[in-house]
Amino acid sequence: MEARGWQGLAPSLWGGGRGCRRKKGIAFFLIRDYSCTAMGTSFEYAVRKKTRFKEPSNFKVILLNDDYTSMDFVVEVIVGVFHKGAEEAEALMLDVHNKGRAVVGVYTKDIAETKIVEVGRLAAENDFPLKCIMEKA
């Protein structure tokens, strides 16, 4: 028996069957059954919900200058952790030295945090106070 909807109309007539195609960004969920014992009727309708996906935020990883870390170690960190070429690493090291900070990469939050931890671990192993921070891009 076909479920009857509002005023005893079949779902195809009251719109229960309309718009149930899959569209970009729209997901359709299970049909719910509502019953009314006083009227002795029940009907079903489709619930749809828009799902929107947004790009993850990007964060700049910034290397900070200090008076104790050697320039060679900073170049090694930039090449090893951030996978930059030797010339680009040297230019970034000079930016850190002259300007006090330099953006060494732009990553999603998890990757940026991992890079910062890795820089801190390498600096601690080599007894340097090199610091790295991240800012929202």
Structural class call reads alpha+beta
Extract low-pLDDT stretches.
Answer: 9-23
CATH top level of the largest domain? Alpha Beta
CATH superfamily of the largest domain: Ribosomal protein L7/L12, C-terminal domain/Adaptor protein ClpS
Radius of gyration: 30 Å
How many structural domains are formed by the residues?
2
The CATH architecture term of the largest domain is 2-Layer Sandwich
In short:
This protein is an alpha+beta fold and 137 residues long.
Explain this structure.
With 137 residues, this protein is an alpha+beta fold. The protein has two domains: 6-50, no CATH class; 58-136, Ribosomal Protein L30, Chain: A (2-Layer Sandwich), CATH 3.30.1390. It is built from four helices and seven strands; from the N terminus they run αβββββααβαβ. The protein has helices at 11-14, 71-82, 86-99, 109-125; strands at residues 26-28, 32-36, 41-45, 48-50, 58-64, 101-108, 131-136. Strands 6-5-7 form a three-stranded antiparallel beta sheet. Strands 1-4 form a two-stranded antiparallel sheet. Strands 2-3 form a two-stranded antiparallel ribbon. A hairpin with a 4-residue loop joins strand 2 (32-36) and strand 3. Helix 2 packs across helix 3. It is elongated. Residues 9-23 have low confidence and may be disordered.
Please specify the SSE layout and strand pairing.
Layout: H1 11-14, E1 26-28, E2 32-36, E3 41-45, E4 48-50, E5 58-64, H2 71-82, H3 86-99, E6 101-108, H4 109-125, E7 131-136
Antiparallel strand pairs: 1-4, 2-3, 5-6, 5-7
